[in-house]
């Protein structure tokens, strides 16, 4: 039986484990990160969205950002503005509420910056909805071309200490590891025994692949995105065919 250790933030970790199990890969989840909303910043964004002069563009950088803000809006009429989402999972949150949105071809900050909606943004107001400390490239790049960027840190990611301690004690046979952020890779590597670095790891970008390699993991394969379908397909291809991408 093929098996995977899934190390993701809470919520997404459980969803990923369930999807893998349903499709025939035995999966164990370690939700190493807890998500905590920052209500003051969320309310401030909602006030701007409902004002007479909302931002021209809103950028949602994660499913958590979209979920928290949509919950805060509580059925209020969404303004007629451009809404950009980093990827399909984030877009699906807005789709559920019928909010028009666009996604880039590549689910990264660079992918967002290449979108037509962000090519001529001088003097335009952009609300960047994100977690604490995230997406600094977007702020820097958009400000450099004259956009009026306002950051809304609507949540923070906190280490789940109890789970992290369990990671250090985990010894079950596992074919591969899935880790979807640089922070999670570093947390895992700080607690897992050195043997885990010999296993293949599935990550979600070249940036996280580099972090993995810097932590002594040599066998790294990059999933097209952190969407559950992409993660499963990448793992399945790896486990069936032994496909490793060191580039």
Helix count from the secondary structure assignment: 10
Instruction: Give the percentage of residues in beta strands.
Output: 15-25%
Structural class: alpha/beta
Fold-level CATH name of the largest domain: Rossmann fold
Instruction: Give me the strand/helix succession.
Output: EHEHEHEHHEHEHEHEHEH
Structure write-up:
The chain has a 9-stranded mixed beta sheet with strand order 4-3-5-6-2-1-7-8-9, with helices on both faces. Helix content is 40%, strand content 23%. With 247 residues, it is an alpha/beta fold. The chain starts with a strand and ends in a 6-residue tail after the last helix. The radius of gyration is 19 Å and the shape is elongated. The longest helix has 14 residues, at 228-241. The mean pLDDT is 92.
Short description:
With 247 residues, the chain is of the alpha/beta class. Helices cover 40% and strands 23% of the residues. It has ten helices and nine strands.
Task: Quickly list its features.
elongated, 2 domains, alpha/beta, Rossmann fold, 247 residues
Blueprint of the fold:
Elements: E1 3-9, H1 12-22, E2 26-37, H2 39-49, E3 57-60, H3 63-73, E4 82-85, H4 88-96, H5 109-113, E5 125-131, H6 136-144, E6 148-159, H7 161-169, E7 176-179, H8 182-191, E8 201-203, H9 206-214, E9 220-222, H10 228-241
Parallel strand pairs: 1-2, 1-7, 3-4, 3-5, 5-6, 7-8, 8-9
Antiparallel strand pairs: 2-6
Helix pairs in contact: 1-10, 2-3, 3-4, 7-8
């Amino acid at each position: 039986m093929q098996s995977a250790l899934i190390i993701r933030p809470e919520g997404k970790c459980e969803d990923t484990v369930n999807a893998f199990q349903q499709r025939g890969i035995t999966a164990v989840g370690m939700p190493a990160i807890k998500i905590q909303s920052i209500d003051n910043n969320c309310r401030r964004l909602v006030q701007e969205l409902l004002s007479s002069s909302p931002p021209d563009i809103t950028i949602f950088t994660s499913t958590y950002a979209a979920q928290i803000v949509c919950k805060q809006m509580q059925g209020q009429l969404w303004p007629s503005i451009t809404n950009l989402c980093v990827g399909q999972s984030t877009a699906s949150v807005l789709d559920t509420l019928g909010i028009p949105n666009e996604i880039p071809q590549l689910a990264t900050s660079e992918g967002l910056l290449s979108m037509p909606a962000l090519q001529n943004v001088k003097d335009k107001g952009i609300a960047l909805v994100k977690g604490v400390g995230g997406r600094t490239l977007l702020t820097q790049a958009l400000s450099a071309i004259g956009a009026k960027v306002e950051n809304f840190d609507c949540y923070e990611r906190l280490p789940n200490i109890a789970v992290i301690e369990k990671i250090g004690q985990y010894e079950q046979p596992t074919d591969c590891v899935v880790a979807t952020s640089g922070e999670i890779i570093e947390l895992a590597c700080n607690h897992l025994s050195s043997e885990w670095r010999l296993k293949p790891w599935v990550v979600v970008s070249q940036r996280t692949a580099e972090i993995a390699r810097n932590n002594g993991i040599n066998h790294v394969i990059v999933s097209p995105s952190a969407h559950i379908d992409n993660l499963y397909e990448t793992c399945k291809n790896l486990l069936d065919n032994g496909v490793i991408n060191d580039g």
